[in-house]
Specification:
- By secondary structure, the chain is of the alpha/beta class.
- The protein has one domain: P-loop containing nucleotide triphosphate hydrolases (Rossmann fold).
- It has a five-stranded parallel sheet, with helices on both faces.
- It binds shikimate-3-phosphate.
- Shikimate-3-phosphate (S3P) binds next to loops.
């Protein structure tokens, strides 16, 4: 096994949680980081959809965002019990103080960041995100970025995803996790 992977596995006793705005690549990167580490990958949005038995857009439409956030809190609380998983969270998970506290105390948190232009490109044409189904998704992303950046900044590790390939970003995440764990010893 790769030295970096061995080092991480020896020291990591918490789930790795990816946070950041919609479209930044939490799910795609989370999946390949988990595969490389040989651990389970879970997407908290998928778990909410499973529990509710309906897509996120329907949950927002029928019950509203607060109801969604309560489900997200319950799901993330349960996911924190698995100490060897990689978890991709929905971009707004940190806006619930209770969920955010869980993330800061129970997980190794990695904030993935990217320019608004990149996020606009990556989210364009998808309809599954209710907050962006409007006339000006760029303005919404900018507003969410302004509101949430101070929250995301509390993460243990900050990574700019820029325009690097998925494989390069995966290596960057693993290197930063390895260094972080070594510094904590
Ligand atoms: C949200 C992000 C979405 C999803 C929901 C709300 C947000 O997840 O949880 O549509 O508030 O930023 P992704 O970040 O995976 O798109």
């Amino acid at each position: 096994m790769d030295n970096k992977i061995t080092n991480i596995k020896r020291r990591l006793h918490k789930p790795i949680v990816l946070i950041g705005l919609m479209g930044v690549g939490k799910t795609q990167l989370g999946r390949i980081v988990a595969k490389e580490l040989g651990v389970k990958f879970v997407d908290s949005d998928d778990e909410i959809v499973k529990a509710a038995g309906m897509p996120i857009s329907d949950i927002f439409e029928k019950f509203g965002e607060e109801y969604f956030r309560a489900g997200e809190r319950r799901v993330i609380k349960r996911l924190m019990e698995d100490d060897s998983a990689v978890i991709a969270t929905g971009g707004g998970a940190v806006t619930s103080p209770e969920t955010a506290d869980l993330l800061w105390s129970e997980a190794l948190s990695v904030w993935l960041n990217a320019d608004i232009d990149v996020l606009c490109q990556r989210t364009a044409g998808h309809t599954k995100r209710p907050l962006l189904n409007n006339n000006d998704p760029r303005a919404v992303l900018q507003k969410l970025s302004d509101e949430r950046t101070p929250l995301y900044q509390k993460a243990n590790i900050h990574i700019d995803t820029g325009n690097g390939s998925l494989s390069k970003m995966k290596d960057e995440i693993l290197s930063r996790v390895e260094s972080y764990l070594q510094e904590q010893e």
